[in-house]
Specification:
Elements (H helix, E strand, L loop, with lengths): L8 H12 L12 E3 L8 E6 L4 E3 L3 E3 L1 E9 L5 E6 L6 E8 L4 E8 L2 E7 L8 E8 L9 H37 L3 H23 L3 H8 L16 H8 L34 H4 L3 H4 L2
Helix pairs in contact: 1-2, 2-3
Subcellular location: Periplasm
Organism: Rothia aeria
Family: Belongs to the EfeM/EfeO family.
Length: 288
């Protein structure tokens, strides 16, 4: 998909990605997370985020409930992520941490290797570092009845996500056709009706790497300086449909950027990802 594409065709590709695979979550090598050493035995970890660094009190803990206490000592609003070992899959996150504020992220982590990341300014690739979760000898096994409830919740939620993706395809195709044909008022009427299905599955979409949600749902304010040409997705189209006056557009007359040919995207909608049992599980059902 071209970064400069601002058509509804860019939106249609979300279903194929959600149902068949993942996208990359690029890494930022400008800085890295670091630790003061040691292992957290109680699962409480302090995180200090600045504009250039992401420092954890430790990068190793025991399996089970882990609480990250994230303090923003930078000048920009930041986010904190726990990622899979590949640095792509989002396990959990906490957003909108303003300067001098502290927020907690509580997540249940099984034994394994992970990545952590701070994202100063809430744009760009973030600052990643390695994180290890070791076996917890004192961990209590999950009761059989509780596990059954979790498995049921996972199965039902996966079905819900698939249903929403199929609705997203249908509604977005209707919306895309109107947008491509320049039927502005009719497209406006379909905008929210189509986008709501993406909003309902956005927590799952975000887990496939930050580039997917960035391509589909980024707002103009989320863009890095000089990256306006790469803007795509719902909010770019929204600006085309509800064009701002010059005094609301840096004193410039807004020029619509519709580049849709009207072709139907060739995507696959029927398959469910093999990892949907994990990826499509509500966070609440994974926490102990």
């Amino acid at each position: 998909m071209r970064k400069s594409l601002v058509s509804a065709g860019a939106l249609l590709s979300v279903s194929a990605i959600l149902l068949t695979g993942c996208t990359d979550n690029p890494k930022n090598n400008a800085s890295s997370s670091n630790s003061s050493g040691g292992t957290s035995n109680d699962g409480n970890i302090s995180v200090t985020s600045t504009d250039t660094a992401c420092k954890l009190s430790t990068t190793e803990t025991k399996a089970g409930k882990v609480t990250f206490k994230v303090k923003n000592e930078g000048t920009k609003v930041t986010e904190f992520y726990v990622l899979g070992s590949d640095g792509l899959r989002i396990i959990s996150e906490v957003e909108n941490i303003g300067p001098n504020l502290t927020r907690e992220l509580v997540v249940d982590l099984p034994e394994g290797s992970y990545k952590t990341a701070c994202k100063p300014g809430m744009v760009g690739d973030g600052i990643q570092g390695d994180f290890k979760v070791t076996k917890n000898e004192n961990a209590k096994p999950v009761a059989e009845d509780i596990q059954k409830l979790r498995d049921t919740a996972s199965t039902q939620y996966a079905s819900y996500v698939k249903d929403q993706v199929e609705s997203l395809q249908t509604k977005t195709e209707e919306f895309a056709k109107l947008y491509a044909e320049g039927k502005t008022e009719e497209a406006k009427a379909k905008y929210a009706l189509a986008r709501i299905h993406y909003e309902r599955i956005e927590p799952v979409a975000e887990k496939y790497g930050t580039s997917l949600d960035q391509n589909l749902d980024a707002r103009e304010a989320d863009l890095q300086e000089g990256k306006i040409s790469e803007w795509s997705g719902w909010h770019k189209i929204e600006k085309d449909l509800w064009q701002p006056k010059a005094d609301k557009n840096d004193g410039k007359e807004y020029t619509p950027s519709r580049r849709m040919s009207g072709r139907k995207s060739q995507t696959s909608w029927s398959r469910t990802p093999k990892n949907c049992t994990t990826m499509c599980t509500p966070r609440s059902s994974r926490k102990s």
